[in-house]
Amino acid sequence: MPKSTPVPDVLSLVLTLRGKRVLLDSDLARLYGVPTKVFNQAITRNAARFPGDFLFQIAREELANLKSQIVTSSSEAKAHQQLIASEHGGRRKLPWVFTEHGAIMAAMLLRSERAIRMSVFVIRAFVQMRETIAANATILKRLAEIDRTLIEHDDALRAIWHQLQTLLQPPPEPPKRRIGFLS
Fold this sequence. Notes:
- There is one protein chain.
- About 55% of the residues lie in helices and about 10% in strands.
- It is α+β, with helices and mostly antiparallel strands.
- The protein has a domain at about 10-130.
- Strands 1-2-4-3 form a 4-stranded antiparallel sheet.
- The longest helix is centred in the last third of the chain and has 56 residues, at about 115-170.
- It is rod-shaped and about 115 Å long.
């Protein structure tokens, strides 16, 4: 009987780089139960399976930005320890990041039972993220409609207010009759 694997929180590992939602090579390797070096070797040997929209390498500036983001978020700091490792004993090469399709392709390359099981979690995490983004887009669209309606109502109420202001003013005092003879 296979050893049970705890359900990972894949969503907390997903980052946004270059406008794409991605997973770090070290996080995928950990999910799939292989060392990062072995994982990256398998990817390198099968480079033809990973076009630029499946996999790309982080630039130094992006890495520095990620490090600062991860340090400020304590929950992600533990998940991305290898990314922020010191120069001594840490990564010597810039990390690779995988889009949803790249992560699935990597799982198919590894062919281990754990990689197959974990790929299901990765796929579900990306699907859940897409659904959340779609729900947020729907909410934002509805809020824009409400905002537009409120602006229209605000303009109508302002016009009514100005018309009522003239009616709410006290009536002008009638002209005083002059005393004396009129010539």
